[in-house]
Every structure is written in structure tokens, then in C-alpha cells.
Amino acid sequence: MPHLSWIEGGKQMAQAHPELQGGSGEIPFSLMRRGLEIPSRFHGYELPLDNAITVQPLNVQFEMAGSGWAHLHLNLGESATTIWLSYVYDPFPTLLSWLGAVDRGELPIQMEIDEEGASKHLTLHPTSMPGSAHFIVDEPYSTMSFLNGPVDIGQVMSSFRDALRTFFEGEFIPESWEMSCQKGTGIPWALELETKMLEDPILRLHS
Q1: Whole-angstrom Cα Rg for the chain
Q2: How far is residue 61's CA from residue 98's CA, in Å, rounded to a whole number?
Q3: CA angle, 138 as apex, 125 and 97 as ends, to 5°?
């Protein structure tokens, strides 16, 4: 099994490994998929890219969005989308694992974010151009994509790292994300999330 940055996998992994469950004890429903586990509609993206194609910068921003919610804003070229992040299906630990897999070159790689009803996939698929990938944001079982284009892998990593650091060092409000506390300590679970995020090696790397 690949190294887990903090929490990775889904319901079956959490059931088999209780120590990987999220802070509140809930089973994490954000998922990671690799290689052939990714739906077949993505398997054409390894076809050669024209070297004349210019990769597009990915802009990433996280912001609080009310009690128990945050937004993930993504801009790629002229396209933009916003993903709702819920504390119920906390995506941050899986996002760290997804970034860790990208950093290790384990492409293709996909993660799923549960928006409490709808879901979004974030997929990076390798191309024939060194250091580049196709970045796709879509919904499960849909052929429509919200974002889809060639990106520089290093720039994607930097954008996510910078955005996560900025969010957890400043705007993140633990008591607005989750009110419940660790049993017998009175320490909010969300405060532990903040600490673990900022101390995780993937965010400290190249800082």
C-alpha cells in the first residue's frame, strides 16, 4: 500500500483500519483512485500532446463559507468552478494524500469530493510532455467537465500548497468548520485538523 500522508481511501479502508478514521470518528468518504481504477473515459489522455500546446496556470483559493462549509475555487485558463467542501465528508486529509501522490509522480490519480449530495472528481492524467498533465474537474457518471486542460505539474503543486497554507494560517475558523470536541479534552477536532494540515510534510515541502 502506498504511503498515506494522513488519511486516504474510503469506507472500506477506514473500516479495515480504524486508526485512519477522521478526527470526529466518521469514516472518510472522500476517495482516491489510481490507474485503471479511474473511469475508462479518462484513459485517452495519455495520447501525445502537441508540443506547441501551452500549459495553463491553475489558480487555487480556499475560503470559509459558513458553518461547516468551505469553498475551493479553481481557475484554469478562461474556465472557473467552485467546489463545496463539507466538514461531514472532510476532504482535506484526502487532498493531502492526492497531492502527495502527484508529488511522487503516481499519475494518473483522482480524488472525489462529496458535496453532501453531489460529488466532484479532481483528476490528473499524464501526458507525453515531461512535467505536464491533463487536469480535469468533473462529476461522477457525467461526460461534462467543469475544467479540462493541460497544466504544469509543479505549478499545480505550488498553487495547492500555497492556497492551503494561506487558508489554514489565516482564514480557517476551527469553530465554524466543526463544533464538536475531542472526548475528555475540550479541544475542537477542527483545531487538530488545522495543526495536522500545517505540519504535514507535503505542505512543508519546498516551503
Answers
A1: 17
A2: 17
A3: 55
